[in-house]
Amino acid sequence: MATSRSLLRSDRSASLLLRRKITDRMATGLSWLAMLIVVCVLGSILWTLVKNGLAGLSINLFTHSMAAPGQNGGLANAIMGSLLQTGLAILLGTPAGLLTGIYLAEYGANNVLARTVRFVSDMLLSAPSILIGLFIYMVLVAPLGHFSGYAGSLALAILAMPIVVRTTEDMLYLVPVAMREAGIALGAPKWRVILFICLRAARGGILTGVLLAVARVAGETAPLLFTSLGNSEWSVDMNRPMASLPVAIYQYAGSAYQDWMQQAWTGALLVTLGVLVINIVVRVGTRGGRT
Amino acid sequence: MEISARQPLPATKKNHPAGGVRTADPFFRMLVMATGIGVLVVLGAIIGVMAVGGWKAFAVFGPEFLISAVWNPVTQHFGAAAPVFGTIVSSAMALVVAVPLAFGTAFWLAALAPPAAAAFIGMAVQLLAAVPSIIFGMWGFFVVVPLVAHYVQPTARHLFGHVPGLSALVAGAPFGTGLFTASLILAIMITPSITAVMRDVFVSMPTVLRESAYGLGATRWEVMRNVVLPWSRQGVIGAVVLGMGRAMGETMAVTFVIGDSNHIGWSLFAPANTIASLIALEFPESAAGSLKLASLMALGAILMAISFLTLWFSRWLLARGQKAAGD
């Protein structure tokens, strides 16, 4: 009697063990599946871009400006416009982001103002980018009466700044207190300690943030639609409407012309490669550090 | 990502050991503080401009603006209900797809992956997050839309088309563009960020808790289900809400695949609009000072308010999760 009962019990525990193992295997399998789906989507996007975009890659693309369908146009003005607007946006957004990051890390401690600034900066980081474009349209484009590269840059700068704020703050926290103390012990005022010791120690990480900001804004379309609008002619005057690669892709991708479609794909390939290369360089360079 | 160990700042009082009045220090302090306040001003100005710009729409239509589903530029009658409906439904459906994907991937990265593969796949997931949204739009339009039109919706209609109650959900011509496709694209776009936060939360759990569960003979899934998840519940919900906030504001990708129709219906496959896609599509055609522009601005204000509240909620959850982690 006793033996049969213990037999029964071991039988039951064996089936329980089996069930637990099966559940574990199923969860493991589903987890693998989820990971594979995510990787396959990335693969599919890259493959689609390469398959459709590679054919249009030619010198012509970089030497000619946009033109009517069948006129053998290129994307030179859009590439130039993207470089100019992204460059100016980073020039505007980086100092603002740096100073705000310094305020949060070095002066804010944990007072109400700093907490609010930190929260609002994070808000801007994930605010819908089209609203930033709408905002710049209302305060800059509408009063001045014309679209311009400056307006586009400003919209992109608002998007770039919070990224720099976040990385600057995070990186400054990583600077050892001993280094600050050493600077102060040598008689340096606080601003010199921050600018010449802390920032210098954190410059690698901050550069990472700036590069990520470049990668983020270089591919942005929505904030440019109502600010720099786009321009089919070569123009480096930032006070006039200005072409950009993402907006050109948007215009061409919705068209019915074979050669415009081709250029849209090639432009998309260029933008994506640029953005991904920056990301890879940053992430490999910082060895697994993520922002 | 919040740095938990806030290092105390070295005490630098105004009476510096080197003596003398230092004018540069207060100046620098003012400068960084002013820039910080500038950030507040920017957000305040964005909200203010949206509210002022949209005021006319509320003034003309009153509270009816919020519940009216009419969007008719010809009769000059505008209502927010259709795009708000599209925004909320597409984001919610995106979460239904994204949460299991992100959870599975985060579980894989945190518990199952060989270390070398984890670094590699982790990077691939982050790269997916870096792809510009217009690329998702093009990929969605040329790759996903045909799949939905030729396979997904016909299959769904075949399976559920005659089931009472479900048939309405799959009704309509198989265009391929619509709510369902937009949700799929949104799901893919927000999966990386949800995965990243979930993985951080999972990894930040004290190892001793996990190891003691393993020591009791628990399987990996049981550790995840009974130890890690309860412990990191708030952080996980915070990550999900954060993803939802992102999805609601997404513009370009949605604009390509949503189908541009201001219509509220039961069908998950019907063309629709989100607030962001409607602004992107109709703003270029609205004259300055027109009622349509005011209505679009009012929609912008609504979107701003929705994403503000979502982000606030998610940060609150994440901060609470972290506080719990600190104890």
Question: What proportion strand of chain B?
Answer: under 5%
Order of helices and strands of chain B: HHEEHHHHHHHHHH
Number of helices of chain A: 12
The low-pLDDT segments of chain A are none
Class from helix and strand fractions of chain A:
mainly alpha
Low-pLDDT runs of 5+ residues of chain B are 1-5, 11-21
As for the number of domains of chain A, it is 2
Secondary structure tally: strands of chain B: 2
Rg from Cα of chain A:
26 Å
The level of helicity of chain B is over 70%
Determine the mean pLDDT of chain A.
91
What is the SS-derived class of chain B?
mainly alpha
Domain ABC transmembrane type-1 (chain A): 79-282
Subcellular location (chain A): Cell inner membrane; Cell membrane
GO molecular function (chain A): phosphate transmembrane transporter activity
GO cellular component, one term (chain A): plasma membrane
Task: Give a structural overview.
The complex is a heterodimer of chains A (291) and B (327). Chain A has 291 residues and is mostly helical. Chain A contains 12 helices and no strands. Chain A folds into 2 domains: 15-56; 60-285, Orthogonal Bundle (MetI-like fold). In chain A, α5 packs across α6 (149-174). Chain A is flat, with a radius of gyration of 26 Å. In chain A, 49% of the residues are buried. The model of chain A has no long low-confidence stretch (mean pLDDT 91). Chain B is mainly alpha-helical and 327 residues long. Chain B has a domain at 80-196 and 235-326: MetI-like fold (Orthogonal Bundle), CATH 1.10.3720. Chain B has a two-stranded antiparallel sheet. In chain B, β1 and β2 (77-78) form a beta hairpin. The two termini of chain B are 18 Å apart. Mean pLDDT of chain B is 88; it is low at 1-5 and 11-21.
